[in-house]
Amino acid sequence: MPKIVRGSAMHVIEQVVRLGCGLWVTPLMVYHLGENGFGLWGILVGIFSQFLLLDLGLSTSMPRFLARSIGNGDVEDLRHTASTGTVGMLIIGFIAQVAGAITWVALPWFLSDVHDLAEARSVVMALTLSSLAFWLVRPILVHLQSQLRRDLIAVAAILRVLVCTALVAWALRSGRGLVTVAWIHAFGGLGELVLMALMDRSFFPLVRWHWARRGKARELLIFSRWSYLLTTSERINFSGTDIFILAAVISSAASGIYSLGQKFAIMFYDVAYAIVGAQLLSTFSQLDGAGNRSGLERGFIAASRISVQVAVIGGGILWAVGPAFLKRWVPQQAAAATPVLLALILPHVLGAAQIPARHLLISMARHRPLALTFLVGISLNIGLTVLLVRLYGIVGAAVASLVVMSLVYAVAMPWLVVRQVGLPWRTVAWECLWLPLGRSTLLLVPAFVLVRRWLEVPTYGHIMLGIAALSAVFFALLALGLLGREERTWFHLGLRLLFKRNKAAARPPMASP
């Protein structure tokens, strides 16, 4: 429990740092690179982000199997899993380099509006090196994740973000272009790799070529086929295709404007995930590996109720403050980006509330129907996006995501937990989702409305004051137990674990089903 709380706290700090650095450097990139240059950066980064699809689900299956080995104390299986998974990641890293070379060659075919092809190809070379660093560091990261050491991962990420952001700002203000920005990120990835290797030296004794097993590879891949389909569908369905469809139907500038509104919704989800979801897969997998079914169910109920509270306050702050921030942040693009932001708030709130459900199904190897659900979602989302973009422009892409994500998270996922795990419908859908969601929303709506009206003519100082006021109201309601008795108990427990070294306080209270 102390590892979970400390790791989650550090991961939250990491996401806050990412958020702050991203908000600071993005206007600089829009100003110095122009809308076309910024849109080009978004498209190229989006292409390379899809290289994550090469992992065949190993990024999900490795933490799950490593955590289960730790949970049941099987050292031999731990070595076989670490060695086999690492070999797989190295092979994927080589394939990613080939994919980067193909992208370099194919640039003229799908970027017809790029005037300086040489610049775009230099950016691709830097991003290809970044992808290599990503796959080399991935085995170390999943090993730390399985040990619930998210705090070490966060430290390395924070250092990289701070250094890269400072260098990018310096380069832009010095008149450097997109190529310099790309190479800064590439060398930042290599630096993070070195730092992670120094932090987790215990990983390397677990990896030997002769410990890699075909049987273990088959076991990992059998589990990974559905987790791969799940993660692939999530990426393509909810964030991966919108900017490409917009670039093809309208222009790269339109995709850049869309990304400004989308950025806040994604950042909100990332922060919510950092608070409640960063270590759930490893935690649930350890409990499942130890055969602790009752602890697994209690952990899911508690995590779900906490996730709902985080989703409500985060989504409310985004609704109250987001439009005002866009006006100050990117005033020329705010009018077009604000509708995108507002349309994406609700589906991301529902997605944040269902983070524990996703990890519970994966940890218990019940994720096949979830993967098929997301596969249906991706088909619906792509078709709906193409149709609505032609009719309504960039807002159409956001509306398509709103419809599909809401159906998946509000209806399909609770039903899957009930059917696959065997928990009562009342517990999953009512007590873990709709009751706390409705109660918290009703209690906080007056504060959200007042802050949004107050920020009609915003300054950065007023925006920060509004966020602080809403946070204070939320924590006051939480501490008083108005948002739920279990939520208040877990809130006080988290404070004790963060600020006191009291091992006795590490026992979680019994969550009422």
TrEMBL record:
Query: Transmembrane segments in this chain: where?
Result: 38-58, 87-111, 123-141, 153-172, 178-198, 243-260, 299-322, 334-357, 369-388, 394-416, 428-451, 463-483
Write out the annotated subcellular location.
Cell membrane
**A Pfam family name for this chain?**
MatE
Topology in the lipid bilayer: Multi-pass membrane protein
Q: What is its main location?
A: membrane
Q: Would you indicate the residue range of the signal peptide? A: none
Q: What keywords does the record list, in alphabetical order?
A: Cell membrane, Membrane, Transmembrane, Transmembrane helix
Q: Under which name does UniProt file this protein?
A: O-antigen/teichoic acid export membrane protein
